[in-house]
Design brief:
Elements (H helix, E strand, L loop, with lengths): L1 H23 L5 H22 L6
Helix pairs in contact: 1-2
């Protein structure tokens, strides 16, 4: 489960970087870029706590 969460988190990070690049290259309109970035951000916040857990002493 931890490896799957890490992979999804990496995909989410790429999903937050990709749309602005595509927008500035005139490959994506602003509304679509914002939707993709929002979805990627939500995915990041859902998956990151699963594998970024810290142990309390």
């Amino acid at each position: 489960m931890k490896r799957i969460a890490q992979a999804l988190s990496a995909i989410a990070l790429i999903g937050t970087i990709g749309p602005p690049v595509l927008f500035f290259a005139d490959r994506l309109d602003l509304g679509t870029a914002q939707q993709w970035m929002l979805a990627a951000t939500v995915l990041w916040f859902v998956t990151a706590p699963i594998w970024m857990e810290h142990k309390t002493t």
